[in-house]
Design goal:
InterPro entries: Glyco_hydro/deAcase_b/a-brl (IPR011330), NODB_dom (IPR002509), Polysacc_deacetylase_ArnD (IPR050248). By secondary structure, the chain is of the alpha/beta class. The protein is built from 8 helices and 15 strands. The chain has one domain: Glycoside hydrolase/deacetylase (TIM Barrel).
Length: 288
């Protein structure tokens, strides 16, 4: 296992972008400002990634481009996973934005042997390097990129829930690259990206694609920014349609997320849980 984040690596990543950590916002609605147009929801399905390494594009390639859309569901954002006839397929994903660690949630997933994709933001990783290393080492989980500052991915600073997004192509690239470098220090070659607040503009979506990243959207909001009670969380997961990507959080141990996930996994049967990794290769049929 590679050594946890070093001070040298942290400083190098920090020089790319500075800014304060923010708490998890609720990715439940599309927001826009007067200069943008929101597109209608379009569901895209995950496909295997064939690249072996990420190459960041040059910011100059996007000079002068004006975003035409901003929101959580845009063309190029993956909202569903491939399905298999005769079995309901669901991908559980949990965001760690900043702050604490919901150890009870991870324990529930381990007890039920249910795989999950964990999106870790750099502020959370810096606060929990030992836990990050432990999660990376656990084959039940797939670790991915939740951003350097945990802000919306934009090129003009569009805000979501009062949080201003990256303000230029260079900042958008740095939001991806900084935490990708941090994850690389733990031996993780990230292939998926989810922005803080799960909001993007259309130019930033293209930047992420040009960088070799798939953007992880969602089709089911599992815990509404870790504000839902256990029963509501359980019902969201139980009712998830075939091929759904469920978004919830793993940095609010006082929330209803862990208990709700336990309720859901204890009652579900014949569900195929998958990861958002390159080839969807770690799959667990679930039989409570």
């Amino acid at each position: 296992m590679p050594a946890p984040l070093t001070r040298r690596r942290f400083l190098a990543a920090s020089l790319l972008l500075t800014g304060g950590a923010v708490s998890c916002a609720r990715p439940t609605e599309t927001m826009s400002d007067p200069t943008t147009t929101v597109t209608s929801t379009r569901m895209e399905t995950a496909a295997p990634v064939t690249q072996t390494s990420a190459r960041m594009p040059a910011p100059e390639a996007y000079a002068g481009e004006v975003p035409q859309a901003f929101g959580t569901h845009l063309p190029g954002i993956v909202d569903t996973v491939p399905t298999t006839p005769g079995a309901r397929t669901v991908a559980l994903t949990f965001d760690a934005c900043s702050g604490l660690y919901d150890a009870a949630l991870i324990q529930v997933l381990r007890e039920h042997r249910v795989p999950a994709t964990l999106f870790l933001a750099q502020p959370w990783i810096e606060a929990h390097p030992d836990i990050t290393a432990e999660l990376v080492a656990d084959p039940l989980f797939h670790i991915e990129n939740h951003g350097t500052r945990h802000v919306p991915l934009t090129v003009a600073g569009q805000p979501a829930y009062g949080i201003h997004g990256t303000a230029s192509p260079a900042e958008a690239i740095a939001e991806i690259r900084g935490n990708a470098d941090t994850l690389a220090g733990f031996g993780v070659q990230s292939r998926w990206f989810r922005a803080g607040t799960a909001h993007y503009d259309d130019v930033a979506v293209r930047i992420a694609g040009d960088a070799g990243m798939q953007i992880a959207g969602f089709s089911v909001n599992g815990d509404y920014g870790a504000t839902s009670g256990a029963h509501a969380v359980a019902q969201q997961i139980i009712g998830a349609p075939d091929g759904a990507i469920v978004l919830a959080h793993m940095n609010h141990p006082g929330s209803g997320t862990a208990a709700g996930v336990r309720q859901a996994l204890s009652s579900l049967s014949d569900v195929r849980f998958v990861l958002l990794d390159d080839h969807q290769h770690r799959v667990a049929p679930h039989h409570p």
